[in-house]
Model the fold of this input.
Amino acid sequence: MELKDAIFKRRSIRRFKEKPVEKHILMQLVKYGMYAPTARNTRSWHFYIVSNRDKLDEVAKKHPYAGMLKTAGGAILVCGDKSIEPMDGYLALNCANACENIMLGALEHNLGTCWIAVYPREERIKLISGIFSLPENHLPIALLAVGYPDEEKPIPERFEKEKISIV
Ligand SMILES: Cc1cc2nc3c(=O)[nH]c(=O)nc-3n(C[C@H](O)[C@H](O)[C@H](O)COP(=O)(O)O)c2cc1C
Done:
């Protein structure tokens, strides 16, 4: 798939076929994430590959906007590592870059993804840290649901010329 097609075709997928995503594919997606740019090239992140059905169901039950995990075949929890980068803002930016790489790369494997918000909401950081027993230095930024799509979404028109200034 050409990069521009992936950019335009990526949509949040919230209905998946109930089929696990192979571990080696989740690993490959994490590898895409690790090639994202980071401030000072700190690569200040840690990735949790989640295949455990009970964990996916637990998040779906306790997080208000994570219902799609009931059918997702896996997930990737993207955390910032505070022991490498002390500023939360940089952790969030670095991890967001990794997330976009993962979401675009997933299309190459015919997978859909959906970003589940964690950072910066304190109650969700607490919730996710508890469910995954995260060490102190891992700040959960986003949980990405991954799975084989059971819905199709069109490419929306999003080009907004008025949001561009040529200076
Ligand atoms: C920071 C962030 C937080 C998000 N949180 C959630 C979430 O908790 N649950 C969800 O279903 N979608 C979530 N989304 C997905 C957005 O709703 C989605 O990207 C947006 O509506 C645009 O749709 P598209 O991804 O299909 O282009 C989040 C996206 C971002 C970037």
